[in-house]
Amino acid sequence: MSSPGPTPGILQEVLTTIAATGRTPRSGKAKADPRPRIELPGTTGWLDIDFVNALGKALAHTDLFLRDTLIVYLNYASHRIEPMTAIVFKTWAERHIVCFKPHTDPDTGHVTKREMSMTKEHAETALNALDFKSHLRQLAHVNTIPLPAFSTTGGIHLLQPGYDPATADYTFPSQWTPAATHP
To answer: Which of 4, 23, 2 minimizes the C-alpha distance to 13?
Structure first.
């Protein structure tokens, strides 16, 4: 026989506690979210340029690249790059950062960070800002299999999966392995 589950009163207590503290009753501390916090512009003298620079620094080593002047992201399902649009960027960025606006309690004067999504306008501002683009890595080529490349010492080597800063190439992981060498 299974237990009937929590009563409505206990369920309401749990939901109220989570809403107020971010933790369940008796569970201790909530897990810390490792994503950096980026303040949205328009508050406390924080300008668009401050926002796009902070955002660019936080996203500089993600799967977001600059291909000539176009911002692109890696699509692992198709092994291609896709142009980043403002609508996609809003939620894509939330995988890596959390935006917030400061909120001052009028009664206590206590300032908290209210987490919120960036608007489409914030996303468009970032994607078109030269200061944001200056933080992104250049992308010259995308490879679906490891290809040969010249090393800085003059030799030739196969590109490994991931981003190669020397060539500005990205090589997707693949099932292909080099054939055994024959004498």
So the answer is: 23
